[in-house]
Design brief:
Blueprint: E1 5-8, H1 13-18, H2 25-29, H3 32-36, E2 42-47, H4 50-58, H5 62-72, E3 78-82, H6 95-108, E4 110-115, H7 126-135, E5 138-144, H8 153-165, E6 170-175, H9 182-193, E7 200-204, H10 211-221, E8 225-228, H11 242-249, H12 260-275, H13 291-294, H14 298-310, H15 317-330, H16 340-354, H17 362-368, H18 381-391, H19 409-419, H20 424-432, H21 437-443, H22 452-456, E9 463-465, E10 473-479, E11 482-488, H23 509-513, E12 521-524, E13 530-533, E14 538-543, E15 550-551, E16 556-562, E17 565-570, E18 575-579, E19 586-587, E20 592-596
Parallel strand pairs: 1-2, 1-8, 2-3, 3-4, 4-5, 5-6, 6-7, 7-8
Antiparallel strand pairs: 9-10, 10-11, 12-13, 13-20, 14-16, 14-19, 15-18, 16-17, 18-20
Helix pairs in contact: 6-7, 6-20, 8-9, 9-10, 15-16, 17-18, 19-20
Length: about 600
């Protein structure tokens, strides 16, 4: 039996890191038989951001993806990445949701549960670990790796011991940013082996250029499993090439026993597949040593780039990477992995755009006030004070966050059925992403998007001009059989979304053409009212007050979702609110959302 076993990440983390998690199931199916015959210990193929991406971008049922992959991989266990009490969402769930999700994941095809918590808080992992043990599947508990004054090999070794006591079948060191250095990996594994005898798996990214050497030293230190990705989907923000590691160990005591020629056929297949997703490619294709300071995970980099493009701030990437280090420290030196990487990254973007903590997301406020779990170090007290005030919390939470969440499956099941769910799996999809799932249920019958449409959707030939309105060229753009009405307008002008039904105030003509000033408030309009603009691009999530309600300056009137985080929009004047954009509509930065007065 080979001393070193490999997990290939091509079906999950590799494309999450390189092409923003956009690979379709159809593009995976053609390689399944080849992958299944290699002899991998497992194939990581589900969980992480794939679930979100399926329903948000691909019109795919993630559960159907899992069943399809299981059918095509009868010999190789499917590994999923599970965020402990967060499951696959961005909040903590009640224990009954955790139990049901894990049960259904096992039934539909998961053979290995890799379970982690961004805070490394054992309280957030115990329930998911217990649920996974009940299924009889392999339970691998992961340690989120970070390099801070509060993360040492001794602390990590104690965590490994704790997870072994939970019943873990193996331990994973999850180095999501490529920070684990070769000789530090050697010392870390030796320290962990002194505390526990269960197998150790090393997961590291190639982002900083350290990964191949780190995997070699990890094997020498006694790690039994290593994570790699087939070469055509490796390196950059992804992982070490599978073939490289196989060849490095060939003929040694660490020989994997895998056949390089067979691997090269898989590499050739995905080399062609990758070309279809060129528009999503990360620009971080070499070794980026800036990450040794910013600690940004590989999967976050490509998403961070696209998020900055949405905000028209592509040139701010270096500033954001520097600010991430500041925010991470202020948030108690939290390891950067989903969801904390998204929370810290989004907050860093807002800090760069508007000033440090001038705008705080709901999730940042929850993080520093204990709603995600115990932090490694004390967070910035000024930030905590702002967070408590913003979210109207009495105090920092010190108990297990899920202890304050009553069982919620029955309530969510009723909501999900009303939104179009027709199975327990659908209910769990709704539980993970209640704002996205209803639209997916509505459009599911149209079938998954083909990867060929990513290129086709961008072609001018796909659009047809319609009548011009208010000086802008209006078009209908057809994407995957659905018409989307868009307007092309002169740079520097503001597009006005249709008013919600019942809005009594017309939008002054001046607001339709005048450039917006920075910030939320675009200032007084020609009609004497105060316009409230979107500070960033996103989706209007909720109107907090009723149409026509009287508010005072500082009242929260709208919540928008931007970069997967929630941001409160506050009134900047007193008066009656008249909404311009309805809940659920996409908005651009500086687009008017409401008028006061």
């Amino acid at each position: 039996m080979a001393k070193i076993k490999l997990n290939d990440l091509v079906l999950r983390d590799a494309h999450q890191s390189l092409i923003a998690t956009r690979m379709t199931t159809a593009d995976m199916v053609g390689a399944l038989e080849m992958l299944d015959n290699i002899g991998y210990w497992s194939l990581e193929a589900w969980g992480g951001a794939t679930f979100d991406s399926c329903i948000r971008f691909l019109n795919e049922d993630p559960w159907e993806r899992l069943r399809t992959l299981k059918k095509g991989l009868p010999k190789t266990p499917i590994m999923m990445l599970l965020r402990g009490q967060n499951l696959l969402g961005y909040r903590h769930y009640a224990d009954d949701i955790v139990d049901k999700f894990v049960e259904k994941a096992a039934e539909n095809g998961v053979g290995v549960f890799r379970i982690f918590d961004a805070c490394n808080d054992p309280r957030n992992l115990k329930r998911a670990a217990d649920a996974a043990k009940k299924t009889g599947k392999h339970v691998q508990m992961a340690i989120s790796y970070a390099t801070t004054p509060y993360h040492t090999k001794e602390i990590y070794a104690e965590l490994a011991q704790k997870y072994a006591e939970f019943g873990a079948d193996s331990i994973c060191v999850k180095d999501m940013s490529g920070l684990l250095k070769p000789y530090e990996a050697y010392d870390l594994i030796k320290a962990m082996k002194a505390k526990t005898s269960i197998p150790i798996d090393i997961h590291t990214h190639a982002t900083t250029g350290l990964s191949v050497a780190t995997l070699v030293k990890s094997a020498e230190a006694g790690a039994e499993m290593l994570d790699t990705s087939i070469s055509s989907m490796s390196m950059g923000t992804s992982h070490s090439p599978t073939e490289t590691i196989v060849e490095a160990f060939k003929g040694t005591e660490y020989d994997t026993g895998l056949d390089t020629k067979s691997l090269l056929k898989i590499a050739a297949y995905f080399r062609e597949v990758r070309k279809k997703y060129a528009k999503f490619e990360s620009s971080f294709l070499g070794a980026d040593t800036r990450i040794l300071v910013s600690q940004v995970p590989g999967g976050m980099l490509s998403n961070l780039e696209s998020q900055l493009k949405e905000q028209g701030a592509q040139d701010k990437i270096d500033d954001v990477l520097k600010e991430i280090a500041v925010v991470q420290k202020d948030c108690g030196y939290i390891p950067l992995v989903t969801p904390t990487s998204q929370i810290v990254g989004t907050q860093a973007v807002l800090n760069v755009l508007f000033g440090r903590y001038a705008k705080i997301t709901t999730e940042t406020a929850d993080l520093v006030t204990g709603r995600y779990g115990a932090l490694a170090a004390a967070p910035n007290p000024d930030l905590v004070k702002k967070a408590l005030e913003q979210n109207k919390y009495d105090a920092v939470l010190t108990t297990r966050p899920a202890d304050s969440i009553p069982n919620e499956f029955e309530k969510i099941e009723a909501e999900a059925k009303a939104a179009g769910a027709n199975s327990i799996e659908d209910t769990l999809t709704y539980a993970m992403f209640p704002k996205v799932a209803p639209n997916f249920f509505k459009n599911r019958a149209a079938g998954p998007i083909s990867s060929s449409e990513f290129a086709a959707a961008a072609k001018p030939a796909d659009s047809k001009p319609t009548a011009k309105e208010s000086g802008a060229s209006a078009y209908v753009v057809n994407v995957n059989g659905a018409d989307y009405h868009v307007q092309v307008r002169p740079e520097g002008t503001i597009a006005i979304a249709p008013a919600v039904t019942g809005a009594s105030a017309a939008i002054p003509a001046a607001a339709q053409t005048a450039p917006a000033s920075p910030g939320v408030n675009a200032g007084n309009t020609a009609g004497g009212g105060t316009m409230i603009n979107a500070p960033v691009a996103g989706t209007l999530l909720k109107q907090v007050v009723a149409e026509g309600a009287s508010v005072v300056s500082g009242d929260t009137i709208i919540i928008i979702e931007s970069m997967k985080m929630e941001l409160e929009i506050k009134a900047t004047a007193a008066g009656k609110v008249h909404f311009i954009v309805a809940a659920g509509q996409a908005v651009q930065a500086q687009q008017p959302l409401a008028q006061i007065g």
